[in-house]
Write a structure and sequence with these properties.
The protein contains four helices and nine strands, in the order H-E-H-E-H-E-E-E-H-E-E-E-E. The protein is of the alpha+beta class. It has one domain. The strands form two sheets. The protein has a five-stranded antiparallel sheet, with no helix packed on it. A hairpin with a 7-residue loop joins strand 3 and strand 4. The chain is globular. The N and C termini lie far apart (about 80 Å).
Length: about 200
């Protein structure tokens, strides 16, 4: 009888104590390290390819900063331009992407902080602030900043064009300053690029 009571007491104590959760393995999204300079070559320009190349997707024309952006086929930077025309960089490649890019001129990548991205001279003057646009022209030795604004990604990265062959290739050095994967809790439906206000 005493043995039965002892087992019953142990069972009640075990049932009353909360179950310890086992740690879940962290999912690997392959996020980039911050402030480290990396290199990439994008080639050729996206729109200067054969029809069969287009069937293969972005291939080496785009930069993917994370494993997740590669998985969802959402590049963070695209090297584009039709054959025999001006090449440009673009951060928005699909849907409701609203990424913007700025040409910062010839500025050393090693000295570029997130703070200086918006004003490399650090002087309060309207003329000194960076001009962010949807696309910018590719220029050798220029440094650029990309504000990533996509449904699932928010971030900032900077890069310098070390070598450029029109329509053929760009060799970049780049550093990521901020990179977040987002989980949208809710959003207003009805976004459309051409919808006016009424």
């Amino acid at each position: 009888m005493k043995l039965t009571l002892a087992f019953a007491a142990m069972f009640l104590i075990a049932a009353a104590s909360p179950l310890q959760k086992q740690p879940r393995p962290q999912e690997d999204f392959g996020l980039p390290a911050l402030h480290e300079i990396n290199t990439a070559t994008l080639s050729p320009s996206y729109s200067c390819r054969s029809e069969s190349d287009f069937q293969q997707g972005y291939q080496d024309t785009a930069l993917f900063l994370s494993k997740e952006s590669k998985t969802i086929n959402g590049p963070d930077l695209l090297f584009d331009g039709a054959c025999k025309s001006e090449d440009y960089f673009e951060g928005s490649t699909a849907g409701d992407d609203m990424s913007l890019i700025a040409d910062l001129g010839q500025f050393p990548l090693e000295k570029l902080s997130a703070h200086l991205v918006f004003n490399t001279r650090n002087v309060h003057s309207a003329d000194m602030y960076s001009k962010f646009m949807r696309t910018v022209r590719v220029q050798a030795k220029h440094t650029y900043a990309v504000l990533i604004n996509k449904r699932d990604v928010r971030g900032l990265f900077v890069f310098t064009v070390d070598d450029y062959v029109p329509n053929k290739s760009v060799h970049l050095r780049y550093a990521v300053k901020e990179y977040q994967l987002l989980n949208t809790r809710s959003q207003t439906e009805g976004f459309a690029w051409e919808e006016p206000n009424h």
